[in-house]
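pinned: reference chain
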Amino acid sequence: MSTFYPEKLSVEYMDGTMATEPVISRRYTLTHSDVTGELFLNIGIHYAWDKINPLRDEVLGEWKQCGGSLCFCVYLHVDQGEFKPSVSAKRNEIFRRELPLALTAIRYGDRFLFNRYPHLDQSHIIIQFMSAYPQFARQENWGTFQRISTIK
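pinned: its structure tokens
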């Protein structure tokens, strides 16, 4: 896993979203620069589709009602069949390796929301690996934000 550097994270609130509102319908688009190592977090009621590059290496997330509690759902585009299985395997490996960093960046970038609603740290993180290949298409519970190594 790469190291998270808060000074390399830029956060932008969009669509009338504020630092602490709303929770439900709050969506996250996390992108990055391979050249500078910078991370860009857009928080809004819609995903920042205009920030997504053709490689589709972004991390998308949203808060959802899961039974009687909230969960944080993350969507990762491994492939839609456009890559050979070996390329999708590599993409899957990279997503898995870098996901703790991405979750840390999201948690840190939206720390004002977590400070206002501390129970969100106990919310389950559900990861949806989206792929045309069954060996990569899976849904996994990655624990809670409290268990993710974060900088608060």
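why pinned: The chain has two helices and seven strands. The helical segments are 85-109, 111-116.
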